[in-house]
């Protein structure tokens, strides 16, 4: 597939997905979602981390495409919402870590895209928010739910009701982004984070993601059982043998993801 709205690059075990419609501040239309879905479906086992960012120098993603949504029916809106949910759930369920590099506006669907990633880092010029109520709607790609789970109900409601656009420092203060970097250092930083992750046992990283994700919606008893299972499963892997043997032999581990 020839992509018109995204760039999808591989750099060894790292993949970088750039939403790339800078003239529309990378707004997410249906065509962009379909390309993102195609890109995610094309990921092979040799890709072990994914960075998501925005093209151009102004925006990560400025939301769902308002021009596309302006005249659609309720039935079409449901379909569009389902498409966005499907792509972001796909992202969330990938067995590899995903990192959002928020390099500018992350509004509405753009913030929802970042929230579908495991880790969010922002540049100093990022602006984040959910301005949907200014358009007479609410977020439709999981924002109401993921924001609530991440920030708690009161802060999520504040952002949803006021449509406030947060600067990066405030977003960090409330725990919406992990760290804030100068604009020209953001990609370097997220690549360094990815590189650190890539040195570790990929099956273990995948299990860590799985038990956190599935455990987060369970009570503690069930969630702890998930952890026990994940821990035990890893003892059937070559990576566990290699990791522990390498430690005892005082040499770096050479993980194969098996
Ligand atoms: N959809 C479609 N086009 C968009 C867009 C969007 N979400 N955001 C920006 N654009 C377009 C603008 O229409 C403009 O196009 P033209 O040059 O053809 O006029 C171009 O991108 C540049 O934008 P601005 O001229 O507005 O740039 P600015 O610097 O003055 O403002 C901004 C930047 C504050 C981000 C402003 O563009 C803005 O408010 N954008 C909309 C943000 C928004 O409301 N997002 C939520 C969308 S709804 C949603 O996401 C629902 C959902 O969850 C499903």
From TrEMBL:
Keyword Transmembrane helix carried by entry: no
Transferase among keywords: no
GO function terms (MF aspect): hydro-lyase activity
Gene Ontology biological process terms, A to Z: fatty acid beta-oxidation
Keyword annotations: Lyase
InterPro entries: ClpP/crotonase-like_dom_sf (IPR029045), Enoyl-CoA_hyd/isom_CS (IPR018376), Enoyl-CoA_hydra/iso (IPR001753), Enoyl-CoA_hydra_C (IPR014748)
Superkingdom to which the source organism belongs: Bacteria
Coiled coil: none
PANTHER family, per the entry: ENOYL-COA HYDRATASE, MITOCHONDRIAL (PTHR11941:SF54), ENOYL-COA HYDRATASE-RELATED (PTHR11941)
Family according to the record: Belongs to the enoyl-CoA hydratase/isomerase family.
Record's protein name: 3-hydroxybutyryl-CoA dehydratase
């Amino acid at each position: 597939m020839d992509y018109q709205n995204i760039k999808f690059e591989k750099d060894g075990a790292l993949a970088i997905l750039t939403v790339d419609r800078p003239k529309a501040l990378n707004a997410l239309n249906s065509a962009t979602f379909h390309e993102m879905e195609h890109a995610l479906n094309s990921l092979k086992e040799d890709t072990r981390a994914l960075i998501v960012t925005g093209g151009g120098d102004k925006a990560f993603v400025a939301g769902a495409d308002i021009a596309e949504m302006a005249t659609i029916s309720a039935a079409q809106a449901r379909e569009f919402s389902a498409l966005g949910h499907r792509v972001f759930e796909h992202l969330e369920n990938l067995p590899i870590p995903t990192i959002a590099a928020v390099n500018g506006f992350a509004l509405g669907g753009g913030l929802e895209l970042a929230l579908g990633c495991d880790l969010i880092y922002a540049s100093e010029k990022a602006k984040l928010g959910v301005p949907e109520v200014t358009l007479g709607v609410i977020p439709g790609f999981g924002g109401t739910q993921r924001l609530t789970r991440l920030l708690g109900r009161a802060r999520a409601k504040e952002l949803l009701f006021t449509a406030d656009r947060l600067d990066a420092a405030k977003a960090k203060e409330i725990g919406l982004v992990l760290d804030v970097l100068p604009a020209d250092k953001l990609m370097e930083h997220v690549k360094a984070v990815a590189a650190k992750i890539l040195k570790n046992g990929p099956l273990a990283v995948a299990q860590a993601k799985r038990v956190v994700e599935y455990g987060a919606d369970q009570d503690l008893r069930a969630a702890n059982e998930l952890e026990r299972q994940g821990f035990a499963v890893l003892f059937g892997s070559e990576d566990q043998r290699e990791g522990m043997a390498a430690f005892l032999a005082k040499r770096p581990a050479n993980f194969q993801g098996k």
